[in-house]
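Slide 14.
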Amino acid sequence: MNALGSHRRHPAAIVIVLLLGLVATGGLYSLLAPRPAQAAVASTDQVAEGAKLFLANCASCHGINGKGGKAGAGPNLVGVGAAAVDFQVGTGRMPLSGPSVQPARGKVLFTDAQIAAMGAYVATIGPGPSVPDSQYTKGDGNSARGNELFKVNCAMCHNFVGSGGALTRGKYAPTLRNVSGKHIYEAMVTGPQSMPVFNDQNIAPTDKNDIVTYLQEINKSKNPGGLSLGNLGPVSEGMFVWVFGLTLMIGAAVWLGSKAA
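Slide 15: predicted structure.
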């Protein structure tokens, strides 16, 4: 017993116990942590094709090796992953047609195969989020839960029904109406422009699918109150009343005055 007690009092005992605790915690986390959405492994030919497309269409801004252009012409792409490429190119935001405060959604200039190839190449520059599996983007989750998550994490910028809204310095939160579930998911995991990144530790893949489900349910639903005014809230409603209501009141006053005369 004395020998055992002396080992317990050894200065290195605390360090060993801490190391064992850290190893056990890391092992449990690796087993229990939510898994990120995975995409199929790219082939060598696909990466080579993506490299050609990147050099021809992207390197002038992002640099030949994807680590950023001169004088901040294009951001560093190390670590953005295939998901960022699929979102930016797949929504027509890239290639950027010209200098702007924030790239806007536009015409898609590449095929799905070409976008996948460019994404596969960018993924080799540095590890990053992959294009999500359809399991997490098809919108078959819990829309009520998605409503709660959206209001807590997204509504302050994108409006309570995803209609979008203005931000500072000329930037804006784009509308999420009629946007594919895949692109919504990719925006959450890559954080384009002013949007923060919501990784799987912030919002689990199943919760992201719930948010996608909520937004898709909004797209399907009709407005029971009649004219929606863009679902932009009290500002647009107040403007409507001010312009049309006040005009009608002035017209009625002029008409009554002419009758009295």
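Speaker note: Residues 104 and 141 are 29 Å apart (CA to CA).
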